[in-house]
Structures are given as structure tokens and as C-alpha cells.
Amino acid sequence: MIGRDDIRRLALALPEADEADHHGIPSFRVAGEKIFCTVHLEQPRLMVKLEPEDQRNLADAHPGVVEPVPGYWGRKGSTFVWFERADEALVATLLGMAWGNVAPARLRAKLSETPSR
Q: Which helix (H) or strand (E) holds 62?
């Protein structure tokens, strides 16, 4: 089982990732700007920003773990991950994908340089 501290460790291991408050919950941003993940405090879920096609494929592959956020933001790729039902490898993969979706081009090459998690 993975917890919030594990999510924080994995998110902050990504190049130029940092943590900031977002309406009372932790968010992880690339270079202090774009959010790639938020972690809910009242429920064991996080939100990652995926491409809509990736979101559909991952929700199909991981029912009950990965699901679109309801409504407008979900159609744009915002995706809930019930992290207590996920393993660390899946969460690390999803964080990396979300980071890559919002990171500036100059940083994307650094993802392959990040040590294995």
C-alpha cells in the first residue's frame, strides 16, 4: 500500500518539482508553475493530469483505481487515482506521465535522467 508520504517522495523526485498549497490541499508543480498532481486529505486519492486517451486506457486497465474526474475537468484529462488500491510502480508511472504533460520542453528530457524510483 502506498501513502501520502510516498506520493510526496515520488513527486518531488521529478525534475524541478515542488510542493505548494492548492485550496487547502497539497499540489505538486513543475518549476513552480503548472500543477501535475494534487493529493486529497479526506479521501485516499490523488489527481493527476493525463492525456484523455491515456486516461481512458488506464481507467480500463485499472478499474476501481484509476477513474476520470467527473465533469469538465475529467474530459480534459484530470484523473483520480485511489492510491491505497495502487502499487508504487503504478503511482510513479502516473506521476511521471502527468509531470510530462505539463513540464516545459526544456525539462522533459530530464525525466529519463531521473534515477529509478
A: none
